[in-house]
Amino acid sequence: QVQLVESGGGMVQAGESLTLSCAASGIIGSINTMGWYRQAPGKQREFVAYFDSVDIPIYADSVKGRFTISRANAMNVYLQMNTLKPEDTAVYYCYALLTSVGVKKNYWGLGTQVTVSS
């Protein structure tokens, strides 16, 4: 069984920073892509940042220059969020497209809340 567990969310004021962490565990053969999505109240889930299949970081325009995705190894990714804005308020989800017991599919964490006050 594969699990993605996020941590690091919280409540901050505009202009401050937070770092999110995601740890993958379980029977994992290979990870194709891994990164972060977010969902604000009343909005659709949108991508924030991820590592593509050749490990290149890809960012949404709304976070370029403020957020940085990094990884310690294949199973752990981080999202450094600087200069946070109220519009960054959302539940942040870790996701991975990976192969487990021969089956490739998307996996999602349960999410961590980020709230930015003005």
Quick tags:
single chain, 7-stranded mixed beta sheet, 4-stranded antiparallel beta sheet, 11 strands, elongated
What does this molecule look like?
The chain is mainly beta and 118 residues long. The chain contains no helices and 11 strands. The protein has strands spanning 3-7, 10-13, 18-25, 30-39, 46-51, 57-59, 67-73, 76-81, 90-100, 103-108, 112-117. The strands form 2 sheets. Strands 2, 4, 5, 6, 9, 10 and 11 form a 7-stranded mixed sheet that branches. A hairpin with a 5-residue loop joins strand 5 (46-51) and strand 6. The mean pLDDT is 96.
Sheet bearing the most strands, described?
7 strands, mixed
> Pairing-aware structural class of the strands and helices?
mainly beta
**Element string (H = helix, E = strand):** EEEEEEEEEEE
Low-pLDDT runs of 5+ residues are none
From the alpha carbons, calculate the radius of gyration and give it in angstroms.
Answer: 14 Å
Tell me the number of helical segments per DSSP (H or I, 4 or more residues long): 0
Helix content: under 10%
Terminal residue distance: 40 Å
Structural topology:
Blueprint: E1 3-7, E2 10-13, E3 18-25, E4 30-39, E5 46-51, E6 57-59, E7 67-73, E8 76-81, E9 90-100, E10 103-108, E11 112-117
Parallel strand pairs: 2-11
Antiparallel strand pairs: 1-3, 3-8, 4-5, 4-9, 5-6, 7-8, 9-10, 9-11
